[in-house]
Amino acid sequence: HRFESFPVERIPASLAGMSTRVPETDLGLSYEQRFEWGNVFGEVLRDASHNSRGTEWRLGAGTERRRGRLTLAPYFVLSARDARLNDYYYGVTAPEAAANRPAYQPGAGVNGTVGLNARYDLTDTWHFFAGVSATLWSSGVRKSPIVEDRVQLAAFGGLAYEFTPTPARDERIPLTFKVLHGRSTPCNLAPIMELRCRSINTEDRTTVDSFEVGRPFIESPHGWPVMIAWYAGLLRHEERGLQPDSWQLNGYLKAFYWGFPWSGRVRTRIGFGGGLSYAQRVPFVEARDQGIRGRNTSKLLQYVDPTIDVSVGDLIGSRELRETYFGLGVSHRSGIFGMAQIFDNVNGGSNYIYTYVEWRM
Q1: Contact at 8 Å (CB) between 30 and 41?
Q2: Which one of 181, 189, 258, 331 has the minimum C-beta count within 10 Å?
């Protein structure tokens, strides 16, 4: 994902009247060669979302040094960007020109970045991450009337928890398969989860069908009734002629809990998943609702998947079907209330209430 775009809210005067430049999704190839002193890597990225249709080539090198609990990793990167990429984000078209903003095309150029990443092991399981970098943009971009001519500084920090000791992978753990069918709902996610809203009576009557594959990577640790699994799914939007039908890719992690008093008789699981969703076309209900509110849309959004299900085997007394589940869930896409640039600062999304069957094989 390319973190370059115009602001959606609080637009500066220098960009007033210009068409909004949005983030784009890149596809590409990368290669890394490791040496005793460090590593050298190369990448080529191409816009796959058809915004800039530009290409970027990257060549970089880095090394890593450990001192006790601290690991330092300095690096540098050279980025060669073609004219289409730079012109889209930092150019001014003729219709956008103004008295203090002449038409301008920065053209192709090379950026240089130096940075330092660090990791500090607080404990065996908790780690602190941080990094700083400085980027000198090509002269063509720095001379643009909508760009400040200075070095771009960046920094980040965060905490990570590592599940250790890492258990040896049990190749006998079977895959999980899931099929679902759902319909759009006017309800928001929280009221659905609280059982205060469950209507699927909408004028559009759009539906979704999906097939997902998953695998647990943490299951019943210390005998606890919990599980964490990854899932990847291909979802089909049936738009009922309101717009062309389209596909959607979902990838997420999901936690389950089944420690209820009756689970010894009928295992009942509640699950909550979170990850990313990329739509081939913005779903109709999202485009419609965001249009009514005067808000923007994005193909890439956060994905949330809350569910509740019961063991089919426990219900009918079949041991062979104990790991087959029937349940209800919500397929939810949103932009985290407009707070995430990766989702183009989208504030809104869509919900589909669905039924599903999940089994292991």
Answers
A1: yes
A2: 181
| Number of domains making up the chain | 2
Residue 303, pLDDT > 70, answer yes
Domain assignment present for 1:
no
> What confidence tens digit (pLDDT) does each residue in 93-124 have?
999 999 889 999 999 999 999 999 999 987 77
Indicate whether 62 belongs to any domain.
yes
User: Number of helices and strands (H, E) in the chain?
Assistant: 5, 16
Kindly report the CA angle at 22 between 16 and 28, in degrees rounded to 5? 150
Q: In terms of domains, do 143 and 271 share one?
A: no
Residues 146, 194: one domain? no
- Give first-to-last CA distance, the chain, whole Å: 34
Q: Show the domain range for 180.
A: 176-360
- Given a cut of 90, whether residue 294 has pLDDT beyond it is no
Q: Tell me how far apart the alpha carbons of residues 314 and 269 are, in angstroms, rounded to a whole number.
A: 13
Q: DSSP class of residue 241?
A: T
pLDDT class of 168 with cuts at 50, 70, 90: very low
Are 348 and 244 within one domain? yes
Compute the distance between CA of residue 325 and CA of residue 309 in angstroms, rounded to an integer: 6
State pTM to two decimals: 0.62
Backbone angles phi, psi at 343, to 5 degrees: -100, 25
The verdict on 236 and 320 lying in the same domain is yes
- Residues β-bridged to residue 29: 44
Q: What is the DSSP letter of 265?
A: T
Strand partners, 181: 209, 355
102 to each of 51, 89, 92, 98, 236, how far by Cα in Å? 22, 15, 7, 6, 45
pLDDT at 166 over 70: no
Same-domain pairing of 104 and 142: yes
